Amino acid sequence: MTPPTTTRSPPPRTTIPLVSSLLPATRQEQDLAEQVKDKPVEAGQPLGGQAQEKTKELVENLREPAQQSAQSVQQTAQDAASTVQEEGRSAAQDVRTRAQDAGGTVKETTGR
Length: 112
Known about the structure:
It contains three helices and no strands. It is mainly α. It is rod-shaped and about 120 Å long.
């Protein structure tokens, strides 16, 4: 003969949550705890294998596009650096030319 099971009603909202942990579990709660104790491990093992396979597949599928993107970014950065460098040289040459022209104008104006 099985002992009668008792059920607890949920504690009122004003009760401190720790109070319910101090009460002994009912037989039904104990039985359910035993039944599900090993379930997460059992259920997680096949999923873990599938997740690992999918992860490896994703890594392989994304490796080449990621490398291509990295190379594209590197090439764009190199192109931008070359453009800035060339524009800097051109601007410096313009400044030199203008300075020489201005120096010539000053000499002509002052007669020196």
